[in-house]
Amino acid sequence: KKHTDSPLDMVALHLKIVGGDHLDSEELVRDTLKSGDECYLMDSSAPQPPKRVATGSLAAASGGGYASSSPAPPAPAAAKPSKPAKEADGRPRCKRFGCNRYYDEGTEQQCQFHKSPPIFHETAKWWSCCPDKKAYDWEEFIRIPGCQTGICSATPE
């Protein structure tokens, strides 16, 4: 009732599933959308990626599941394992929760750490493995001793 002078042009609009594909006017919403899916009503002038027709092994066998005649997009490059962060003098930093000390590579240095990540809620800070030891100041939080002992490691948990 608000905009009777400018009605929507159904031919110029389409749906796009959030985190998914664009729907053509030929597709049925009930066949494509699942319960709880969110979608946008978009103008046809918005750029659309190539249409996906299938997923799984059939899609891989037919060239990646794209309906266009162009070749499938290149596969993303494999993520290279990152090297441990090192200090200026070349020593790696321990990645265990709450340790963060630099240690000499090749030697086993004892560290005291937390087995679970920190929680920051409003002004309170605590380690999820030690819920009874809360701090309200950063310096106080950093001083909470670890609940586990082990050897420093450059591999993140």
From TrEMBL:
The keyword 4Fe-4S does not apply. Keywords: Metal-binding, Repeat, Zinc. One of its GO terms (molecular function) is metal ion binding. Gene3D superfamilies: 4.10.1130.20. Residues 40-93 are annotated as: Disordered. Residues 94-157 form the CHORD domain. Pfam families: CHORD. PROSITE patterns: CHORD. It comes from the Eukaryota. This is CHORD domain-containing protein. It comes from Strombidinopsis acuminata.
